[in-house]
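Lecture notes, part 5. Sequence design as translation. It can be helpful to think of inverse folding as translation between two languages: the language of shapes and the language of residues. The source text, in structure tokens, appears below.
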């Protein structure tokens, strides 16, 4: 079982930037596709960004494309989410998660992710 700990959330003005980090325990992290998801009050959890176990440029929800960048450092067992040009509608609790299976290459539906962090609050003030 992989344990995940997010950090880097906080309060920022619209147009500002934040970087979230997700530190993972476990020796299998480099073989796990990882995703960032968010949940705003009264809404369902939604996909934000994902990166395959092998790395690469990442996958993004349309709402964040061009503003957010996901990356991973397998040597540090850490995944990052750089969030730029933040908007009030980006306000949510952000979660990182890893896929249920190693070397996973399917969709980034939350149902396909088995280990989740505790969440990090991001609040964007207008």
């Amino acid at each position: 079982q992989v344990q995940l700990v997010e950090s880097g959330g906080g309060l920022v003005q619209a147009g500002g930037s934040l970087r979230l980090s997700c530190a993972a325990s476990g020796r299998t992290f480099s073989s796990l596709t990882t995703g960032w998801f968010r949940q705003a009050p009264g809404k369902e959890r939604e996909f934000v960004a994902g990166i395959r176990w092998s790395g690469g440029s990442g996958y993004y929800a349309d709402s964040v494309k061009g503003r957010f960048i996901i990356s991973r450092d397998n040597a540090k067992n850490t995944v990052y989410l750089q969030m730029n040009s933040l908007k009030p509608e980006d306000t949510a609790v952000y979660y990182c998660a890893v896929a249920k299976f190693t070397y996973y290459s399917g969709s980034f539906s939350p149902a396909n992710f088995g280990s989740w962090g505790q969440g990090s609050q991001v609040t964007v003030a207008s």
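The translated text above is only one of many valid answers, since several sequences can fold into similar shapes. The CA atoms of residues 17 and 84 lie 4 Å apart.
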